[in-house]
Amino acid sequence: MKGYLGKKVCVAMSGGVDSSVSTALLLDAGYDVEGVHLRIRAPEWTGCTSAEDERDAARVAAVLGIPFHVLDYTDKYKEYVIQTMLDDYKVGRTPNPDVICNRDIKFGLLYDWMVKNEYAYIATGHYSNTSEGRLFRAKDENKDQSYFLWTLSSAKLIRTLFPIGVYDKKDVRLIAEKFGLPVAKKKDSQGLCFVGKLNMKEFLKRNIGTKEGNVLDTNGNILGRHKGAILYTEGERRGFTVNPKSSSPAPLFVVGKNVLKNTITVSGDKVDGDSSRKIVNIVNTNWILDMPKVGEHYLARVRYRQPLQRCVVSQNSEETSAVVHFEAPQLISSGQSLVLYSRDECMGGGIIC
């Protein structure tokens, strides 16, 4: 956490234990710390805990004796995150809202606010590490969140601090207790960025509308019915029905979908069907500092917490796109992120198409 641009830091305080401990660590290290909570209000039916989270963030700031600010980004969140998600789902893509939120909200709007108000750094409770404008995986591999941060630029990372990236989650809990933080035992948030646990299928039904369609095998035979093709992501094995006489008793996974025809394709083999590929095209690429070299071996993941996969970049356009060739077939979902690594360093990534 060495800082050379000054000591004034704004910490994005979500009200959870990770951002609270990040705040306490920076304060303990001698930084001039101020807390910033981003208010995002969601409809009551979602079960959103944002009001409770805001109170918890304020309580932590009071315990630590630091200034506390609240920025209402409800409308911007709907515009940048929610509407982008809905637009993608409508055409059959499966977006990653955490990637969008980090790019446009935390390291977009909030970062700009930080610069405008003359802070030296922005800090968050992400499990990641940064050094000299580069992004690295966290010590706790199970909690590592560098996958969600691939859109950041090197210039922004130079002014970013991730205080808990060098700790395991269990140690973060102990540090919270040591500092007497009121959220030390609070459960980790799950689900949509800022909104929390959300029934995504119910959310899509309310905002897009769905209708039932056919479940197919990889030969195009009808096996059963589903509740709407846009509701399913490759790899899922629940939420659809099949005729017991037309399939084996083994679990069936979604291996493809056609939104225009409103069909999903299932198989007992996850890497069966059109969605399983060794060669993956990505667009809207962002390379944090060094552009990956064609022909060199790297590691990559196409979903959060997936074990890193060996791959080679076979084509790379400096501006917008790349082609990644994996050693093993990958079950991919259009709209998700492919994130590339060189050992522990996150090089950047792109959107799967």
TrEMBL record:
Where is the region Interaction with tRNA? 143-145, 303-304
Q: Which reaction does it catalyse?
A: S-sulfanyl-L-cysteinyl-[protein] + uridine(34) in tRNA + AH2 + ATP = 2-thiouridine(34) in tRNA + L-cysteinyl-[protein] + A + AMP + diphosphate + H(+)
Q: Which UniProt keywords apply?
A: ATP-binding, Cytoplasm, Disulfide bond, Nucleotide-binding, RNA-binding, Transferase, tRNA processing, tRNA-binding
Native organism: Candidatus Vogelbacteria bacterium CG10_big_fil_rev_8_21_14_0_10_45_14
> Which EC numbers does the record give?
2.8.1.13
Subcellular localization: Cytoplasm
Q: Which GO terms describe its molecular function?
A: ATP binding; tRNA binding; tRNA-uridine 2-sulfurtransferase activity
Its protein name is tRNA-specific 2-thiouridylase MnmA
Coiled-coil positions? none
